[in-house]
């Protein structure tokens, strides 16, 4: 996969792209990450990328020319998904991450100031994504978030191929609790079932704990799930106990 980011502050990405899973993914050849300064594609000798909005109002608006020039230059005729990080966009979910992980080429647009010229949205962008109902200074941090969520799903990136399958939201539910050594830490003990060696019982315990945690913290997630008869009985059992 190739991922290209257009930003006014490309230096923000060096630490994130050069560490942890994203660094390993590049070393394994699973992804190519590149960041370009939008100012490099300004048609103004002063590298201006913003201007006052027509009709008046506070703030500055990103001009269309640099964005169009940059995307056309880096895509070289290809037609990748062009993703605008925007608080008005579609709420980002694990399902969206899985959808984007199937692509071979992604371009992320990050901006600052008051907003974008509307023609960028209408004629250049294929997807608008928001990571939540709040406003940040720019699109860089949201882009990092989405890229991390996508890249870790690529084949060969994680140490264990099924690691991401058990993550919270991958199954539609929150993940079960995890424990490691020591079995007894200051009197706080690991549940006996996890020390039993009975994998069938352990799997059943983990599923039940996943249901419990989801009911306690995000009961709304059940609204989008199609549960089996067995899972429905488990859910009713847990509800009655709670």
UniProtKB/TrEMBL annotation:
S-adenosyl-L-methionine binds at residues 111, 131-136. InterPro entries: Alpha/beta_knot_MTases, tRNA_m1G_MeTrfase_C_sf, tRNA_m1G_MeTrfase_TrmD, tRNA_m1G_MTases_N, tRNA_MeTrfase_TRMD/TRM10. It catalyses: guanosine(37) in tRNA + S-adenosyl-L-methionine = N(1)-methylguanosine(37) in tRNA + S-adenosyl-L-homocysteine + H(+). Pfam families: tRNA_m1G_MT. Its EC number is 2.1.1.228. It comes from the Bacteria. GO terms for biological process: methylation. It is found in: Cytoplasm. Homodimer. Specifically methylates guanosine-37 in various tRNAs. Belongs to the RNA methyltransferase TrmD family. This is tRNA (guanine-N(1)-)-methyltransferase.
């Amino acid at each position: 996969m190739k991922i290209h980011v257009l930003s006014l502050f490309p230096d923000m990405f060096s630490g994130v792209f050069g560490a942890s899973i994203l660094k390993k993914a590049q070393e394994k050849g699973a992804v190519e990450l590149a960041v370009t300064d939008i100012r490099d594609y300004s048609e103004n000798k002063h590298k201006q990328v913003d201007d006052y909005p027509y009709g008046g109002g506070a703030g500055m608006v990103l001009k269309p020319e640099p964005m169009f020039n940059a995307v056309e230059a880096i895509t070289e005729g290809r037609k990748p998904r062009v993703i605008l990080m925007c608080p008005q966009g579609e709420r980002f979910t694990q399902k969206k991450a899985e959808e984007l992980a199937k692509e071979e080429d992604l371009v992320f647009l990050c901006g600052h100031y008051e907003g974008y010229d509307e023609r960028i949205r209408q004629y250049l962008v294929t997807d608008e994504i928001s990571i939540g109902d709040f406003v940040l200074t720019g699109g860089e941090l949201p882009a990092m978030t989405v890229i991390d969520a996508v890249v870790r799903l690529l084949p060969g990136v994680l140490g264990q191929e099924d690691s991401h399958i058990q993550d919270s939201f991958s199954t539609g539910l929150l993940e079960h609790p995890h424990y490691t050594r020591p079995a007894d830490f200051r009197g706080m003990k690991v549940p006996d079932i996890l020390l039993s060696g009975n994998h069938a019982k352990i799997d059943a315990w983990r599923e039940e704990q996943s249901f419990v945690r989801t009911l306690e913290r995000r009961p709304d997630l059940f609204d989008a799930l199609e549960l089996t008869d067995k899972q429905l009985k488990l859910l009713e059992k847990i509800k009655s106990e709670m």
